[in-house]
Each structure stands twice: as structure tokens, then as C-alpha cells.
Amino acid sequence: MSIKSASALRLILLLALFSVACMTSISGNDFNAFPSPKDDCFKKSRAFIDILHFNDISDVMKTPFFAYEYLKRSTPQTLRLFSGDVFFPSFLSTILKGKQFLHFLKKIKPDFSVIGNHELDYGEDNFMELKRALSIKWLAANFKRKGTAINVGEAEDHGLIELGGLKVCLFGLVDKSWMESLLIDVSGYELEDYLQKARTISQNLRSSGCDLIIALTHMSDDSDEALLRDTQSDIDLILGGHHHIYRISRFGQRLMIKSGENFDHFSHIKISSSQSPISNQSQNSSSDSNFDFVLRLSASEVLIERKQQFVFSLKRGDNEYFNVSVEKIPVNLRTGSRDLELYYYNQRTFSSFYDALNSPILKFNADIDVRSDTITWNETLIGHFLSDLLRASYGMDVGVVSMGAVRSENIFYKSDILREHDAHSMFSLPLDIKFTMLPGAFLKTLLDFSLQAYLGRVDNFETSGVAYNYNPTKPNPSEFIDATTMKIAGEAINPAKPYTLMLPNPTAAFKASYPILAAIPISDYNGLKITMIDVLKNFCFLPRDAENRTEFTLFKSQFPSITLDELNAISRSNAQPKTNPRLIQALIDSLGSSNVLHTLLPDALARLRMYTLASEIINVQSTFIFQISSNFQKRFNVVV
Hints:
The protein is α/β, with parallel strands linked by helices. An 8-stranded mixed beta sheet has the order 1-7-8-10-11-13-12-15. A 7-stranded mixed beta sheet has the order 5-4-3-2-14-17-16, covered by helices on one side. The protein has a 5-stranded mixed beta sheet with strand order 24-20-28-23-29. The chain is globular, with a radius of gyration of 28 Å.
């Protein structure tokens, strides 16, 4: 070995020893437990920290693609952070109660995470069992068991890690939208105001000698924006989740980052202290240092996405800056490189669950985007189909589907076939469907609320059977919808007339926050317990019956232009006795096409209503399935 090589080796070893010496980890609620800021590794004039961040994941079968990209950027000196929602909801979570992610999490070793609302889908005790199996330090500072100082899940308020010459302090925050999404009974807990908590805890952390203060949040976009703009807190960096988007925002001298959903992206963040700022920083305009980037990719753009880098300088004092590089890392979840150990582990452990539910059930002749970022903020083909299906299945005036409860986080391309496990993934949350009858005036109030939730990024309630114009600039939510434009089945709404609806059963927390939901007199339809997965599978299995296939072909040939609204009207008509169990050619020949539909029993008319949603029946791997057309027209018009 040459003298130059030996010297270089000694230098590398000294740097490695320095890094290890400066990397300690503490978590707890006692600020006095922090090490002194006079430690040798804080005397350096320049420090550097490397962070990997991700949030909101659900499909364990995508982990090999993600882990390959993530682990090649991870070192023992990397700070690995997660912003909640891992164990639920998904197809496998309904079977394994979150255990499906333990091997993956042990492999990538996140250091800290805030508790996502879905961590508690199967209760606090189940979360505690999963928590004990992992080394992750869970944080949640402002949701406590009532009358105690104990956080939900026995999480810590905050944590500390000394790394790369910086004392990094972290704490976890949740908000009202997080609480409203919980499936557990929240009456035994108290939610503290996240802004007040952030001010108190960040100021205490700063006075304890923290150099970099990170808030790990699982909150709505509006809450994270308010936190970003709050000048009374002492936060440097907000790393968020809950809303499934990739977003980078700067306000003043701090950043907020949300890193995607379901393994499609993560963020590689590099922070260095410096006496001078970076030139050519990321900004939206040359006159404003504030910055906002929200990733919006169409289904086709996802396939060709590339890495993207953003740079910022955050002033910390006189001639003192945090220079920050944020690299948006896309993960190719279809044809990308995989971590082979994780891939083979998943195949051995989980493939049997998918194989048991691998039969084809449905095909769309268009790309179907079921990512939360798409379906909760837009009218979509999948939203139209599901709400139409709910109305068609039961002959209702209006069908309502909460798209916030639809969980797939996938794009099904035109060439894809939906499998039975895809349906279970889509409705892995328990979405109970209820019946109600509301006068037209109350129905408008309900739709006003749904728009309020949609425009406030709380949820998107896709509706079938009703159309209207709305003006989101109106100051009063009750004025959003122009009542004169509201139509049901093509007719102007009657404020006094009762209309039938099938709609999702809101959670108790959601009802508590929005009294209008608690005022709706819901009940089981005909005494039946109905879930959305039942509704979807009942439809998808119709073509498997030979008699249904024959009936479908006959119906499409004899009544090619009949609408769901027209069949609903026939279902309620008593013009003729309803005695015939199925549409057959002999009945058409004897009764005529204008009369035959009026003689069909309710089950037969329900099938015909559902047939209107499909364009044809196709054979896939010896299984007959419906194909759905891509005829998409917006139902609600914005008029400003």
C-alpha cells in the first residue's frame, strides 16, 4: 500500500469514528435529558445531515421496488424519517392486521415516525403489539389519553438524534382531520391544538440546544400550511403525511415537504450549515423567495417521470445558513429494479393470499387512476362508476360514495385487468352503506356539505343521479350550489319531495365534527348489512352466470339506448304486475319491448340497471367479466 493510500485510509477511519461518536439517540418527554450543546462535535464550523423521508404506504408487494432505491441512498449516518400510515389499510391488512410490514420496516430501519390515523384502525392494543416488534421511535405530542400526560400509543412527545455535527430534535403532531379519520372511539382522548403545541415544544427544544427542529406531522394540507406560516413556533422543517401528495413549500426561513404516497416517491434531503447562501435557489418568481411545488402527474406521465432537485438557503442568523437540497426520487413500481431479498420474502409469504383472489373481475377501456390525490380532489371515472353502481344496485334516486374511503393508490392502465384482490384493496377500509330518504331541501344541504368537504380537501363525495352548478367563491357554504340548477333524473329538484339515497356511514368522529351528518336518519336497507365491497363483487360476478350473459346480450340488443333513470322509473311503476324473473326473448315476442320491462321482478330489474353500466362482456382467462366504457362527462359545473 502506498503512503498516499495509507493516509487516505487513516482519514476515512477517523471520519467514520467521528460520525459514530457524534451519533447518539434519545427520546422522551424530559428536556433535561438532552446532551450538552458543548459536546465536541458541535464545535465544528460546518455540519451536514442526510435525511430520507416517506409517508403513507399500504401495498407491501411494492416494497422491493421502493427498498432498492431507498437503501442505495441510506448509510449508517442517514436519518430515516416516516410520517405515518403504514400498517393499514390494504388487502393484506384485513388478514394480517399490520404484521405484513414488519419485515420491510426492520430492513429499512426508520428512526422516527409520527403515528398515522390508520396505525390505529384495529385499536391501540394492536398498534402497541406492532410497535414492540420494531425499533422505530413513535412520536405524537398532542393527542393524549383523557386526563393523563400519556400520548396515544404511548408515543413520545419528541426525540433527539445527534448526527453529522448537528443536534436534531423531532416531535410529532396530528390534527382534527387525523382524529376524524380514526376508527377507534375517540371519547377517551383529548386533542390539543397543534399550533399551540408546536410553539411550546419547539421553543423548549431550541432553548435546550437543538440546532435543527423537525416537526413530523400527519395532518391535512391546510393544517401543515398554517404550521408552516406560524411565526410563533421555532420549527425549521415540516415533514408531513396524511394527504397523499408530493409537495415542497417554503415560507420565510422554513420548509414543508410531503413525499408522495404508497411508495411512488420519497425525498432525499441534504442539509448543511454554511456562512453563505446557495445561488439559484428554487422559487416560483424572481421577486419572491417563498416557493410552492405540488406534483400533479397524469397516468401516462407517471411512466416517464424523472428525478427532480430543489435547493434552498434558510437564514439562521448573521452569516449563518442551512443550505438544503431536496431530491424528489420517483420509484418505478412496474418495471424498476427490485431488492431481491425482499422480493423473494414477499413471494414466499404473501403470494398465496393474492393467488387465492387472483381471478379477473373487471376491465375498463381507459386508464383508471385510483390514487388518493386524484380521486379526492377531482371528479373521476372510477368515482362516477362506483356511485352509479350504488344507485343501480338498489334503484335509488341518488348514490353517494366517499372517495376518501377508497384505498388503492394504484393506476390501472387500459391494458390492465382488475383482479378480485384489487377490489379488496380498494375497499380495505370497512365502508358500510346505509339507506336514507331526504326531502329535496335537505338533500341540497347535504350536497352543500359535500362540496365544503371537497373544497376543503377533507373528502370527495362522488354522487350519481344529481347534477348542479356551483360557485365556490360564495362566502356562505349554503350558497355554493345554485338550487335552480339542481336536477335529479333530469328533472328540477322539488324541495318538499322525498328522495332515496344510498350513502356511506360516516365515522363517529366525523359525525361529531359535522352535525349535519348526525342529523341524517340512516338505516340498513331492507334490514341488510351492506358494504361497498359486497356491492362491487355482486356486480362483477354477474357475467359468470351463463343465463346472465344471455340476458345481457338480449338486453343490449333490444334496449341499446335505455338509461338508468328510465329503468329506475320502470322499477317504481305499477303499470303491470311484476311476475317474470328474467328477460328472455319469448317474453319480448309475446309482450312487446314496450311492455316487457314492466313485468320483470325487482331482482331482474336490478340486473338490467347494472347492465347499463357495462359496454360488453369479455372472456379473460376463461372467466367472463364486464368491460366498462370510458364515457366521462362532468356532472357538476363551476360557475363563477
